[in-house]
Give the backbone structure.
Amino acid sequence: MEEKKNSRRSFISKFAPATFWGSLAVWGGSLLKFTMPTLLPQETKKIKLGMPTDYPNGTIKVFEKDRVVLFSDSEGLFAISTICTHLGCVTKWTGKGFDCPCHGSKFDSLGEVVRGPAPKALKWYKIDKLPSGQLSLNLGESVDFGKKEQFYV
Ligand code: FES
């Protein structure tokens, strides 16, 4: 009986410190990851849009999952991020502009701030024409506010 008690005590004394240090390492790693900025570049996502003729003047296409809205007007194509410039909530395209549900910011149809607390306009993304003639929306690269792309067919 005494021998059995010793083996249990021996087992606990061996594994308790390992459990403690293992838990501490996991907790410390999580804390470090939380406090550190992302050092590696994020993966750049590109969306194939199809041919320029697929986007006649007046087109508005919402890519809800990718958090971007694509527009076509007489001056060209442009894509506006729906991520709010205040604290990063996802705004909603209303048909006239973008509304942020978190703190009430409003943006006009070009993404310019109409009402704060958002400090600046929504981001515009780059649209490229591929050698195949297809268009590609680059969510990893922004362009200057108001820069519309003309893709002549
Ligand atoms: S995150 Fe949009 S208003 Fe605060």
Remarks:
- Residues 93 and 104 are 14 Å apart (CA to CA).
